[in-house]
Amino acid sequence: MVKKLEMLPAKDVDLSSVKYEHEVVKAPHLTGFVFRFFVRILELPLIGPAIMTHLKKDNKIDQLLRHTVIPEGPMFKPEYPPRETEPGVVVLDEDGSPASRVESALKCLPQYDPSKSWEDSSLPFRYWKIRDYAHAYRSGKVTPSMVAERIISVIEENCRIKPPAPLLISFAAAEVRKQAAASTQRFEAGNLPFDCIGNPLSILDGIFIAIKDDIDLYPHPSKGASTWMHEVRTVKEDAICVSRLRSCGVIFVGKANMHEFGMGTTGNNPNYGTTRNPHAPDRYTGGSSSGPAAIVASGICSAALGTDGGGCAKILKAGSVRIPSSLCGVVGLKSNYGRTSMQGSLCDSGTVEIIGPIASSVEDIMLVYAAILGASPENRISLRPSPPCLPALSLDDSDILGSLRIGKYTAWFNDVHSTEVSDKCEDALNLLTKAHGCEIIEIVIPELHEMRTAHVVSIGSECLSSLNADCEDGKGVKSTYDTRTSMVLFRSFTAADYIAAQRIRRRIMHYHMEIFKKVDIIVTPTTGMTAPKIPPSALQSGETDMQTTAYLMRFIIAGNLLGLPAISVPVGYDKSGLPIGLQVIGRPWAEATILRIASAVERLCGESKKRPLQYHDVLRSN
User: Fold this and answer.
1) pLDDT digits 0-9 by tens, 165-216
2) Among 41, 479, 511, 616, which is least packed by CB within 10 angstroms?
3) Helical segments of 139-172, H only
C-alpha cells in the first residue's frame, strides 16, 4: 500500500513557502567492461525491469508519476498566451526569401569595419566574423576556393587522429570544392566597383557551415551518429533549413558528429569516435551537438546547425546546442518552439524540437537565424506566434537595456559543481547592471524536480514510440550501450506516466508565465559545470554518468520542456581555462530580447577571449 499524494492547483501554490532542494541523482557511474555487463543485465527479462524499478524508486520517479494526484489537464505541446512585439526591433518577413531576411538582419548589426581587423595583427585573439569573410572575398584578398582547401586539409588531418576524434562523420572533399568553386565564380563574375565584386547571393555566400547529423544535407546520409539509421531512412533532399541556407550561397562542409541519437549530454560516441573540446582535448565538448560546437570553436566554420529541445520523432534530445556552446566557448541559440521548420530532419515530428544555430558571435547567430527561420503553416496557425524579429543593434539600445527586468533564482543559480561557474556568471550580471542599469529581481521557480521528471518521461516516451519498431527488428543491439540503457528506462514508462508528465508540463508553464509577468528574462549559468574529463575507458564503449548529466542539464530543461527561447553566451573561463556560459531564457517568441541581452553581455565580457588549443585560422592562413 502506497500513500496517495495530492498537489495543490498550480494557481494556489504559495511561492513564499517554496524551498529549493538540491538535485541528488542516485545511479551508478559505469564505463568499460562493467558498463557493458550492466547493460546486458538490464536487458534481461525480469531482472532488468526489477533493477530499473529500484532506480526509479530511489529517484522518486514513480512516487510522482503514479502515486500523486495532479489537478491540471495535460499539455502535449507548448501553449502560449498572445504577446505584443518587442520594442526596438526589426520585423522579418517570414514569407520572404532567406536572402532578403539576411539582408534585413545585416542592417540590424552595429557599425563594423572589417578592414581594421584584417590589417591590425596586434589585436588580441578573436574569431573571424561572417562580415570579415565577406570583406576578404569582396576585396579579393582570398576566395572561397582558397578557404575550402585549407578546411579540407584540416578535416583530413583530423580524420587521421588516433584514437578517432572526428568533427565530421560524413565528409566529401569533392563536394566542398564544387560548392566553393561556384561561390568563387559568383564573386569573380561581372565588372562591378571595388568591394562590390561579382554577384554573391547574400553576405552568407562563401560562408562555411557544418550540419549536425540529425539534419538532412543531400547527398549525405542522416545517421543520427548511429551505425544503422541510414539503412531505414533515405535522404532524398535537403532539410528546409539547409535549403534556405543553400539559397544564400552557404558552403556545407559535411555532417557533424554528435551523441548517438542525441541520447546524452557529453558528446561521447564510440561508433565514430568522440569529438574533443578544442580548449582541452582530454575533455568533452558537451552534447548532443558536440561536432557543431567544436568545429565552430576551432575556427574551421563560421557557424553550424544543431538541434535543441525535447523529444522528437526519431531521436531523443536530452542535450542541446546550449550545453556544447557553453563548454566550447561559443554562442548557441534555441529559438522558440515553432519558429523554425523541422521538416527534413530526424526530429520532424517532435513536440518541442527546434533547429539551433551555433556561431562564435551573437551577430553571426543573427545572420544564420534570419536565413533559417520560418515555421510550418500548421504551427503558425496553432501557436499564433508573434512575427519573427531581431534587435536593432545598429541603434542606441541603452534605454531598452536599462528597462529590462532580469529574473534570478539565486538558490538555483548557485547550485553548481564549482563556484567558479556561478561567480563568473554573477560577474557578468554585475557588469550588465552597472553598464545599463538593468534591474535584478529575485524569483522562485517551484517544482524543479518535477520538471526534470516530466522532461525525461516526455522525451523518452516519444523517442521510444519511433525507435522501438526498428530496435525490436534487430537494430537495437547495434546501438551504443548508453543508448541501450536509455531505451530500457523508456520502456519502463507507461501511458499513464506520459499523461502525468504532460500535466506537470502545464503546471511548469503556469509558473513561468506568472514569472514573466514580473520579469522580461530569466538568467542562469548555462551548465552547472565546465567541460568534464573524458574517462579513457569510456572511449570504446561509452559510459553512464547521471551525476554529470544532472549538472550539465540543470538549467537547460525549462527551455526544452516549455519550448521557450534561450541562448548561451560566453562570459569567461575557470582556473583551468575552460569556458563558462551564461544562459538567457526569454518569454515566448522573445528571441529579439535574448539576442539583445546576449549581445550586451558579449560586448562586456568578450575582450578576454582565449585562443583554443586546437584552433585553425582558415581565413588568413600563412
Assistant:
1) 999 999 999 999 999 999 999 998 643 444 445 689 999 999 999 999 999 9
2) 41
3) 144-159
Q: Which residue has the higher pLDDT, 217 or 117?
A: 217
Among the listed residues 340, 173, 179, the one whose alpha carbon sits nearest the alpha carbon of residue 250: 179
d(CA 337, CA 561): 10
pLDDT digits (tens, 9 = 90+) for 512-536: 999 999 999 999 999 999 999 999 9
Please say if 394 is a catalytic residue: no
| Cβ neighbours of 559 (radius 10 Å) | 26
CA pair distance 500, 480, nearest whole angstrom: 29
Cell 560586448 appears where? 603
List 243, 288, 386, 422, catalytic entry: 288
Are both 243 and 265 inside the same structural domain? yes
Total domain count, the chain: 2
Both 550 and 579 in one domain: the answer is yes
Amino acid at 509: M
**Whether residue 292 is found in the same domain as residue 151:** yes
320 is catalytic: yes
The pLDDT assigned to 487 comes to 96
Domain that holds residue 552: 105-110+126-386+399-449+505-608
Strand order in the sheet with 208-212: 168-170, 251-256, 208-212, 303-308, 354-359, 331-334, 566-573, 579-586, 521-525, 405-408, 439-442
pLDDT at 314: 40
Give the CATH number, domain containing residue 242. Answer: 3.90.1300.10
Residue in this structure with the C-alpha cell 535549403, named with its chain if needed: 243
Q: 576 catalytic, yes or no? A: no
Number of H helices, E strands in the chain: 24, 19
Catalytic member of 170, 243, 302, 320: 320
- Which one of 129, 212, 334, 408 is the catalytic residue? 212
Is there a single domain that holds both residue 163 and residue 212? yes
Residues 6+ apart with CB under 8 A from 622: none
